[in-house]
Amino acid sequence: TPVRVAVDAMGGDRAPEEIVAGALAAASADVVPVLYGPRDVLEPLAGGLEIVHADQVVAMDEKPTDAVREKRESSLFLASRAVHDGTADAVVGAGNTGAMLAAGLLEIRRLPDVHRPAIAVPIPALGGPSILIDAGANADARPEHLLQFAHMGGVFAEEIVGLRAPTVALLSIGEEPEKGNKLVREAHAELAADADLHFVGNVEGRDLLRKAADVVVCDGFTGNMALKLLEGTIRTTLEAFREQITASTRGKLGGL
Fold it and tell me: What is the DSSP track for 104-133?
């Protein structure tokens, strides 16, 4: 049975053109993307994909609370609602992260006993991908939340990335168990006591690109800071390389 994926075609800095292009590239006998957004905007781009009309659009800079109050019939919320209603198996959005999180909580809802959702981001580390969780959904968290993030990250690593018996580490300012703030120290104790986790202890931010563990757990504030720092460092390094390579004939030959 093909998987139906509800796509918020209006979410993202380069929407709808790039979002629709991605949906078209993903379409196959196994994946059926369904575009959500203004029909008159999407029809010239859709290439035959199914469209569900939505008048409202959640902007990238819009406050999630405003979107919840005023735009429950937007493409983002309608696409999320389709999963809850059973007309779609999954939802994809590249737009406002806070609004996407709110739509997931209100329309799809949480699994039983899951306290909070979390953002899992595969880091392209040396030795294979490493899952950073939470990468920004929860600026504040409690130790029991980080324990659940570890389990959710483990499931993601196994089912999505294909890692078997994933190792789990806690992001801190030192490898010793006593290092870190109160949240990290208490979370360390809970992670270490859980026999269902392959917990390998604390890791530092400098080890994220060295595959510190299959799953690296932290609160959303720390995870988002780490993720943005990695993105900025990699982008700046690549730009510097390009500038140096193109600065001389010898550099161009070497780059080639």
Answer: IIIII-PPTT------EEEE--TTS-EEEE
Q: Tell me which residue of 69, 54, 66, 68 sits closest to 11, measured CA to CA.
A: 54
Q: Report the amino acid identity of residue 234.
A: I
By the 8 A CB rule, do 217 and 142 touch?
no
24-33: per-residue pLDDT in tens?
A: 999 999 999 9
**3-class SS string, 206-233:** HHHHHCCCCEEECCHHHHHHHHHHHHHH
Q: What is the pTM of this model?
A: 0.86
Is a pLDDT exceeding 90 seen at residue 144?
A: yes
Find, among 221, 233, 21, the residue nearest to 124 by Cα. 233
Strand-pairing partners, residue 35, are 7, 51
CA distance 172 to 174: 6
Q: Which two tokens stand for residue 211?
A: 């595959």
3-state secondary structure of 9: coil
Quick one: pLDDT at residue 252?
A: 82
Q: Burial, 44: exposed, middle or buried (Cβ in 10 Å; 0-12, 13-18, 19+)? A: exposed
Residue 122's pLDDT band, with cuts at 50, 70 and 90, is very high
- Which residues sit opposite 158 in a β-bridge? none
